[in-house]
Amino acid sequence: MTLTPATAEHWLQRYGDAWERADPAAAAGLFTEDCQYFETPFSPPACGREGVLRYWSAVPEGQTDVSFRFRLLAVQSSTVFAHWSA
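Below the sequence we write its predicted structure tokens.
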């Protein structure tokens, strides 16, 4: 798959939808089996899709009425730059 602004926006929309719906399985499904998901740049990563699922399983307990917004800034090679808020 080629990464384009359209595919990046689609991914971000799906990420936001999963967050707003409090759907850990949908969030985890957006990541690869070998991903490293960092909550912050300084925290240890959740590793792989299963790690993301475990991380996101706790999210609905602490967050309600989430509204996700983003602005795509740039796509360069395999990197996406975006500003988002939730």
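The chain has a mean pLDDT of 93.
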